[in-house]
UniProtKB/TrEMBL annotation:
Binding site for L-glutamine: D101
Protein name: asparagine synthase (glutamine-hydrolyzing)
Reaction it catalyzes: L-aspartate + L-glutamine + ATP + H2O = L-asparagine + L-glutamate + AMP + diphosphate + H(+)
Upper classification of the organism: Bacteria, Pseudomonadati, Bacteroidota, Flavobacteriia, Flavobacteriales
Cellular component annotations (GO), alphabetically ordered: cytosol
Source domain of life: Bacteria
Swiss-Prot/TrEMBL site (Important for beta-aspartyl-AMP intermediate formation) positions: E364
Family note: Belongs to the asparagine synthetase family.
Residues the record lists as binding ATP: L262, I289, S362, G363
EC number, as in UniProt: 6.3.5.4
Amino acid sequence: MCGINGILHLQSQKKVDERLLTKMRDTLEHRGPDDKGLFIENNIGLGHRRLSILDVSEAGHQPFLSDNGRYVMVYNGEIYNFKDFYPELRSNGFDIRTSSDTEVLLKLFELHGTKMLHRLNGMFAFVIWDKKERKLTAVRDRMGVKPLYYSFYGETFYFASEQKALFAAGVSLKMAQDGMEEYIFNRFVAGENTLYENVKKVLPGHILTLHESGKTTSEKWWDLKTEIQNQPKITNPVEWFRETFDDSVKLRMVSDVPVGVLLSGGLDSSSILASLNQQNFKDIQTFNIGFKEKEHNESHLAKMMSDKFNYGFNTMQLEDNALFDKLIDSTYFQDEPIMHLSEPHILALSQMAKPSVKVLLSGEGADELMGGYVRYKALKYPSLLSTIATIGHMDYFTTSPRYEKLARYSQIKNQDDLVIYNGCNIYPNDIAKNYGIINPPKNEYRNQILEEAKSLYPNNLRRQALYFDQHSYLCSLLDRNDRCTMGASIECREPFLDQRLIIGLGSLNDKWLFTGKKWKFILKSAMASRLPDEILNFKKVGLSVPWGDYLVKSPGFIAELESFSKSDLFQMPYFENIDAKKLVQNLRKGDTKMIPYIMPIFMMHIWLKTYANKF
């Protein structure tokens, strides 16, 4: 696991500035404190910071050169099945000189080019420079677990694992109008665009090829819709799921350093723990975040599971000034205003885990694959939403936060928009009313994904929402996990995101997902003999945080809330119609309905004040 970066001067033999490349690289030191390297040859420069997971010796040093000297690679990620390729490589005349997946990856590329990508089981973002053909090949894994950003700026191509390295190289930090619109309406920017005008992402499952001349092509190497359509019928889904999930967990234990588990106490992370126990993995440490507020706390379940399997249990709480400090830190690591609101907690948890482990397993992806969010239930009977819309003023719908949100959601009339805004906390009508912002974003990428979802699952809004989230909301969660764990120099792995599970689950009948009161039926069925009823039937909490209390009761936040009401943010054209003082006044009066409206712009205020000013 690493941080990668590079510079290519286009149509020029201007030599790459070593100091500038070093500055970019060392901006990513938190991603790789164990080793560092540079490769510079005239107009091309590659940088690397290493977190040693596999082959912790110097043999895994990067940038990594091919034996014949033609290719140079920088790589961030893990290929879990890398040893499977040893016989093939040796039979083709390659010597295996290290025990790292880096060497295997580059030699597979030498042998097959990008045609080998389908055979990899892992998470990865890598860039290879071909000295002979004078071109860069940049590749990102299927689901976008590992990040890769780039910028064409001033006749030069820059790339890096995080945006901050691009800004450190001199790329201007300028917010994109479309990006701000997506942040407000959809919580994050989906697809290849970012919040920044000059910065893009290599899309998950894509290859970006850049010739020295400046000619650029983008190719999709993995298409989930096609994979689902080509999946053979699964005859015994529960047995298939259990066996595949166990194998995925086993693969993600491939490591030369200790591995732990992010354990919330919920069904997903507990299933990982149960699988580890079933496969006789010993001496596992679990890490949990707790809350003093009972409705947010699952620590007792996490401890029960750790004790049940004789695994080490570590927990912590994050409140008041410590929470505020971690908010500032996590905003820096995230590069954009935080939007899941759990970023400070995952960062603190990772920092607590760091002395014990270098790798953490996470339950991310289970909800998007198997229907774990309550918000999907609203899509089961869309006609009921129109009924709710007509009675939304009733006390029954406005006293409970969940029903109040449902009443607001029911105001959306268009079925496409029901899917597009399903993962949001506030909706277009709310934004118009509270922010004075009328025009929603273009959402070209979101609309493209929705069309794919509709063609794959016609007249099935729930399945469309799952497919949609797998290409959008889940990407933002994976980005959060990567930034928060790598901020503590820890690698995060997600067993639910093995491609066999993603494709197979996408091909199953609805009943395997949506049966029962809380759905995720196949997971509960597969784990029924391994997990106690307290886990199987516990009300889903997730990592929810009582922000309303923090903002009005915690000293650091009280002061910042006052600063927020006068923020420079509201001098910017897009935000000038927002009455921040009124929002804050209503929150202080105890109106908790204000929290969904305050949090996104409060976090943007924090970002503007603490991050943007750094660059």
